[in-house]
Each structure stands twice: as structure tokens, then as C-alpha cells.
Amino acid sequence: MAGLHHPDTADIELVDVLAALGHPVRMEVARTLADGEERFCGEVVPEIPKSSMTHHLRVLRESGVIRQRPDGRRLYLALRCADIDGRFPGLLDILLAASPPRSSP
């Protein structure tokens, strides 16, 4: 897990954030992390297969939406609210309010 790329705040692009949050699973991850708490990746959207979550988390990380922090064998996630609000004020609030929670499969 060493070497996880997280774009600098200045490098976060609107099109990348919108594309990342355009998928319902990734939007659910953002909604779950919106309270500001850091969470273990396995508890964010537990009903999604691990291989699918790996892809969704990579998209979110590389777009600058989340930060992933390894700690031993666990990977912790946090929403980069301050960074995104710094680049695009109010965007996360609008997207979270406009998107209803995903229903369980």
C-alpha cells in the first residue's frame, strides 16, 4: 500500500471530482464519510465486493475526493472536505444534498 497517490489540493480538478462522484457506490462512500470521521475501508459500504471497492476507492483517491491511510493491515478512509471546499466551495454539500442514499442490494 506504500506509495498511494493523493493529488495536492491545487491539482484537484472539478471534472475528476464530478466523474468520481457520478457513480452511486462512490457517492455512498462520500456520504458515509461526510461526518468527518475516519473509517476502516471494510465498514464503509460492506455489501460491495472487495474487488469492486478497490476500484471505487482508487477512483475516489486519485480524483482527490478521499484520503487513504494505511495502518498495519488496515486501510482507513477520510473525505477530503476541506480540500474540496477550498477548491470548489459548497460543491460537496450540494452533491450530498442532491443525491439520495443508495438502497441496499
Classify the beta-strand content into a percent band: 5-15%
The residue fraction in helices comes out at 40-55%
Q: Please identify, by name, the CATH architecture.
A: Orthogonal Bundle
The strands making up the biggest β-sheet line up spatially as 1-3-2
Shape: globular
**Integer average pLDDT:** 91
- What is the CATH domain class? Mainly Alpha
Largest sheet: 3 strands, antiparallel
Total domains, how many?
A: 1
- CATH third-level topology: Arc Repressor Mutant, subunit A
Order of helices and strands: HHEHEEHH
CATH superfamily: Winged helix-like DNA-binding domain superfamily/Winged helix DNA-binding domain
Low-confidence stretches: none
Q: In total, how many beta strands?
A: 3
- In angstroms, what is the radius of gyration? 13 Å
Structural class: alpha+beta
State the end-to-end distance.
29 Å
Count of alpha/pi helices: 5
Domain HTH arsR-type: 6-99
Protein name: Helix-turn-helix domain-containing protein
Structural description of this entry:
It comes from Streptomonospora nanhaiensis. This is Helix-turn-helix domain-containing protein. The chain is built from five helices and three strands, in the order H-H-E-H-E-E-H-H. The chain has about 100 residues and is α+β, with helices and mostly antiparallel strands. It has one domain: Arc Repressor Mutant, subunit A. A hairpin with a 2-residue loop joins strand 2 and strand 3 (about 75-80). Helix 1 (about 15-20) packs antiparallel against helix 3 (about 50-65). The radius of gyration is 13 Å and the shape is globular.
Summarize the topology:
Layout: H1 14-21, H2 24-33, E1 39-40, H3 50-63, E2 66-71, E3 74-79, H4 81-87, H5 91-98
Antiparallel strand pairs: 1-3, 2-3
Helix pairs in contact: 1-3
